[in-house]
Request: fold
Amino acid sequence: MTERPANAHQAQLLRLLRDGGPNSRARLGDQADLSRSKLAVEVDRLLETGLVAADGLAASRGGRRSHNVRLNPRLRFLGVDIGATSVDVAVTNAELDVLGHLNHPMDVREGPVAVFEQVLSMAGKLKAAGLAEEFDGAGIGVPGPVRFPEGVPVSPPIMPGWDGFPVREVLSQELGCPVMVDNDVNLMAMGEQHAGVARSVSDFLFVKIGTGIGCGVVVGGEVHRGVTGSAGDIGHIQAVPDGRPCACGNRGCLEAHFSGAALARDALEAVERGRSAELASRLETNGTLTGADVAAAAAAGDATALGLIREGGTRTGQVLAGLVSFFNPGLVVIGGEVTGLGHTLLAAIRTQVYRQSPPLATGNLPIVLGELGPTAGVIGAVRLITDHVFQPA
Amino acid sequence: MTERPANAHQAQLLRLLRDGGPNSRARLGDQADLSRSKLAVEVDRLLETGLVAADGLAASRGGRRSHNVRLNPRLRFLGVDIGATSVDVAVTNAELDVLGHLNHPMDVREGPVAVFEQVLSMAGKLKAAGLAEEFDGAGIGVPGPVRFPEGVPVSPPIMPGWDGFPVREVLSQELGCPVMVDNDVNLMAMGEQHAGVARSVSDFLFVKIGTGIGCGVVVGGEVHRGVTGSAGDIGHIQAVPDGRPCACGNRGCLEAHFSGAALARDALEAVERGRSAELASRLETNGTLTGADVAAAAAAGDATALGLIREGGTRTGQVLAGLVSFFNPGLVVIGGEVTGLGHTLLAAIRTQVYRQSPPLATGNLPIVLGELGPTAGVIGAVRLITDHVFQPA
Reply:
């Protein structure tokens, strides 16, 4: 088991090295606002624990050359992103660089036992490839609300069999390291904040459009999870009064009108009505249609596919306009698989938000696609666990 | 000019005395988690500055009796709440007890010069009544977005003449004390948090239904103002697709369908159509109809008035349901003048939120009326300014 920092100064130094990479003692002291002697004491202690390693001499700033330090290059973290239909597992070093990343299709409804067997097998493969001997911590994202302090999914609508399953405890035992669990969309938001388009932004929304739709809410640099861990559950906000019936029992929910699942259903309907030769040929080839097929058809110029994406973007934009009025964020990031829908989607969302929200809230509001794609979740996961292990025990 | 605390410990002690009232040194040391010697040093310094006063001997806890201290009983703060159609001004001591409170009808559209003349005259009356000699700080709420750090209203839609007016600077000069300015709804939220129904709740929404509709958003105990100070501007969220035209240029905004102004308009329309004898007789008596008339008619059992309130509550509930899904608060408080509409309104809002938001977000979510009525704003205002003056300069 990795040692933990002994105090807040050490925790701060570890996070500076995680986020900024190797650094000279002198610059680190400036950034942490620590005196030379205090810095020396804390860095020496971190070297003793093995969390930090010496890294040669720094370039001269005039005067005596400072020694470089970095996080121990042998530290390894595991990031796991369990989606509705696939599992991503990645290994990173302590600077959160991805050293290896595997993806495997898997239905979350197979339940926690089957899913974690898969996760452990993937982690084993990454070890066998020489990327890690053991893990110093693991972060896990699941596609539903999480009681965060305990790391337990609660009432996850698309995850039968997961309600109350002690994910954190079980995986911590299996992996032999500290584990933290969060909602997958929260982790994607943290990933984009750490290494993507939301770097240095402290108040933003991350909207994931995948099988369903969810939102990560970041306030003052921290994920806002809400009192029961369900903040950002925007898929069931009413987008169309008396609209389509939704699995939740209401009508007109955003997810019932736009999501990977709704898009696939609308595409099938369009083929049945003979409205798209492009989608029909894809259905014949693949035997089924998904959001990705609609994206490909749209890229090929299919008017029906483009229309579906535009309409979905408009619905999403209607809901987002309300959230932008309410929350007044500095940035809105659109991510998830459906980002393959690209700029048609983005244009429809932007049009709606800029039209409906007050000018004061949108005057300087970028609405952009995420930068990290499928790695956003795993990077957020290792960010979460390193936030945890790089704080005093 | 009042002295300011010299360090974070002193600031903490001042806030403990503000929020908990007079206390013994011993208990104060426990609450602040300060050693006996450290506490003695800091309290003695606060006594020297005049911020704190001795208050006799405490009851014995066994052993030597501890001395009581309290905030200097001569400290005076001014709370000002500028609404769309009236001005509230109150004087409090440093424990934020209201010593005197005046209300004056005034149209905010008369502009800042006329409004502040009125405010200063009301403050003068409170002084003349012997409630204060001078003020140690003043908090001001205005009915529009505020660039908080500078204390300047920005693009306030219902406040022509106020855009960019240096409220903080001007009032600070006139009153000769530190001044802080915020949106009026944010201050009402802080008021209910300090002394009302949201005491000890750290994540909640305060919805003000007055001439317009606005929302105070409290996250982790702090007001969330958004990147341009417009967070909580929910009056222009779309409640009815292609609904009534709104002053903002869009259609179907919540405010266009429900607010004090919309209610007055709907009541007039009902009278014109001969649908309410009760409202007709009130119109004849008063020459005009307001939200208060609708409340009174509803209280007298008028079916049309009750219907208007119920419909307004449903519209408000539809918008709130989305915000509850998104934000997952621990409490929703309904306040403002229209709380005279009482339980009919509350029942309609609750029905809609509990029906439309996910059970995980509403399972344990109280939706209640505010407790402080028209004093919420002025108490929030003095809370804001004491937060400011009770922190190190």
